[in-house]
């Protein structure tokens, strides 16, 4: 989620261990402009979480 004080997304928990199949994990922090409430953030997170290979 976005930290209102800094305006950027921060880590919300521990980073997952590398997958056993040798795949490479990449962390991407997105700065989404125009979100005015927690519902907006949850909607974006939910949509991203439905994409194959994405953990929001």
From TrEMBL:
<dbReference type="InterPro" id="IPR036163">
    <property type="entry name" value="HMA_dom_sf"/>
</dbReference>
<dbReference type="Pfam" id="PF00403">
    <property type="entry name" value="HMA"/>
</dbReference>
<dbReference type="GO" id="GO:0046872">
    <property type="term" value="F:metal ion binding"/>
</dbReference>
<feature type="domain" description="HMA">
    <location>
        <begin position="26"/>
        <end position="56"/>
    </location>
</feature>
<protein>
    <recommendedName>
        <fullName>HMA domain-containing protein</fullName>
    </recommendedName>
</protein>
<dbReference type="InterPro" id="IPR006121">
    <property type="entry name" value="HMA_dom"/>
</dbReference>
<feature type="region of interest" description="Disordered">
    <location>
        <begin position="1"/>
        <end position="22"/>
    </location>
</feature>
């Amino acid at each position: 989620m976005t930290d209102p004080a800094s305006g950027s997304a921060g880590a919300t928990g521990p980073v997952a261990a590398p997958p056993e199949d040798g795949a490479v994990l990449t962390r991407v922090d997105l700065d989404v402009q125009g979100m005015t409430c927690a519902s907006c953030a949850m909607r974006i997170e939910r949509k991203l979480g439905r994409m194959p290979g994405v953990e929001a």
